[in-house]
Write a structure and sequence with these properties.
heterodimer; A: mainly alpha; two-stranded antiparallel ribbon; 63% helix; globular; B: Four Helix Bundle (Hemerythrin (Met), subunit A); 2 domains
């Protein structure tokens, strides 16, 4: 009993610690990456290569004046950033981040490197919790009593609904192929190779599904080219115009945490999670650490991909965004879904 | 454990249903409804219907209510006039009727009240596997029929929303 609680607490501490440390690292990567892409220097004064810049930023955000504008609906104004953080932190508990060959810690089974190993809902839980994420943006926009914030909130609600559809249908293909909601089962299902050289990852038979999922993930995390809810060129800062200090930081941090969760989901659903065909993984704890490293590297690649796309592509116009969502992404995801069904019926997959 | 979670969730659901219909601010109404759905989802989860619990949140809180919020924000409704204001007779009659119906329900159901445990679905009934199987076998016809109905609704909405081309 106690061992179980301690093991879960350790996993929880690791996950929360990693999520909170990834945020400053990603902020640094984003700023240095944008400088690299735009042929600038980027922050390079604080610490070696500007590595301590996020630390200074954090101190700045913590010590800034905590401003609540007049005329806001105080309850919802304060609730919105809290919802954003809670949602961002609690979606990660069903994400498995390493393979567990039956290891023991303090005489108790580790039960897989996943905070909530008993939850059979897996991906459905992520969708259920993530569906509350839109409330934070909509409420922030509505309660701020600012027309730009309100526009950001209205845009966000329409965008989230449109892209959630494509995202869910794209995931259905993977769920059919693995016949499980559990993310760890989906990963172990992708071990091995096709024809001896092609990794058995879902991205190869379901390339269209993978593309729709990645595009929808960009829209759901409000990242460029789909950052219409904040669109600083049109809406000042969109839904978080009226937020300062740590309340702004909550939105900021949750965006980066959502990026981590989305990257982890992309890796798990379409890129084989921690599986790496052709490499003999060591056994025992060494194997577990090896799998965690492989998984982290894959996630890191997609995090970089988020940054890369943000500084490469311009923003969509709102009608283009809606057109892409409904006329391209939804039909494509349905196409993927039909293809997986046909392939499974013909026993190709 | 099941009973305690149920009691807490049930009280939350009832209280926020009242807020949903009684509060003047439409955004508060929608959010209370979201809390009601969350409490219902908790009840589903604790009696072992975990698939239904997830779908409840994804479909109702994630899509339907966000659509409500979208409409409220788009029309920028600030608050609604209290219904029945200035009509004390109608209000009193309505309240009396509601109380009478409530008492009648309690009297009828109270006679044959089942115990809480007997209302629980058996284990394994609420999994995605069981629901999918019964949708594709026993309830295949209604399932397919509803999909046609929804398609008709979808096309109807498109026709209504289409601009007349001249």
């Amino acid at each position: 009993m106690w061992a179980e609680i301690i093991v879960t607490l350790i996993k929880l501490a690791v996950v929360i610690g990693v999520l909170f440390t990834t945020v400053p690292i990603m902020v640094w990567v984003e700023r240095r990456g944008s400088a690299l892409i735009q042929d600038r220097l980027g922050p390079n004064r604080v610490g070696p290569w500007g590595l301590l810049q996020p630390v200074v930023d954090a101190v700045k955000l913590l010590t800034k004046e905590n401003l609540i504008p007049e005329g806001v609906n105080k309850l919802f104004y304060l609730l919105a950033p809290a919802i954003a953080l809670v949602v961002a932190l609690s979606t990660f508990i069903v994400v498995p981040f390493g393979s567990d060959p039956g290891l023991k810690l303090f005489g108790h089974a580790v039960n897989g490197f996943i905070v909530a190993p008993g939850l059979n809902l897996g991906i459905l839980y992520v969708f259920a919790i993530a569906s509350f994420g839109v409330y934070s943006i909509v409420l922030a926009g509505w309660s701020s009593d600012n027309k730009y914030s309100l526009l950001g909130g209205v845009r966000s609600s329409a965008q989230m609904i449109s892209y959630e559809l494509a995202m869910t249908i794209a995931v259905v293909g993977v769920l059919m192929a693995s016949s499980s909601f559990r993310l760890d089962t989906i990963v172990t299902d992708q071990a091995g190779t096709w024809f001896g050289f092609l990794p058995r990852w879902n991205v190869f038979p379901q390339l269209i599904g993978a593309i729709t999922f990645v595009v929808a993930a960009f829209a759901e995390t409000n990242r460029l080219p789909f950052d219409l809810p904040e669109a600083e060129a049109e809406l000042v800062a969109g839904y978080h115009t009226e937020y300062s200090s740590m309340k702004f930081a909550s939105f900021f941090m949750s965006e980066y945490m959502n990026m981590v969760t989305s990257s982890a989901l992309i890796v798990i659903l379409f890129f084989g999670g921690w599986t790496l065909p052709g490499v003999a993984a060591p056994t025992g704890w060494a194997g577990a650490i090896f799998s965690i490293v492989v998984f982290s590297l894959k996630v890191a690649f997609f995090l970089w991909f988020f940054v890369w796309v943000r500084w490469t592509l311009p923003r969509f116009r709102f009608d283009q965004l809606m057109g892409l969502g409904w006329k391209v992404m939804v039909p494509l995801s349905v196409l993927n879904f039909v293809w997986v069904g046909v392939a499974m019926a013909l026993r190709i997959l | 454990m099941v009973t305690y979670v149920f009691l807490v969730a049930a009280v939350v659901a009832v209280v926020f249903s009242l807020v949903t219909i009684a509060h003047r601010n439409p955004v508060v109404n929608v959010l209370s409804l979201a809390i009601v759905f969350f409490a219902l989802s908790a009840i589903y989860a604790v009696v072992g219907m975990d698939f239904l619990a997830a779908i409840q949140l994804i479909v109702y809180s994630g899509a339907v209510l966000v659509l409500f919020l979208f409409v409220i924000m788009l029309l920028n409704i600030r608050s609604v006039e209290r219904l029945g204001s200035g009509r004390p007779l109608q209000a009193a009659l309505g309240a009396a009727a509601a109380i009478a119906v409530g008492v009648a329900i309690v009297l009828v159901i109270g006679k044959q009240a089942p115990t809480f445990g007997s209302l629980l679905p058996g284990t394994g009934k609420g999994t995605a596997f069981a629901i999918g199987r019964s949708l594709m076998t026993t309830h295949l016809f209604p399932f397919e029929f509803i999909s046609v109905l929804l398609l008709a609704a979808l096309i109807g909405a498109l026709v209504l929303a289409r601009k007349e081309e001249r």
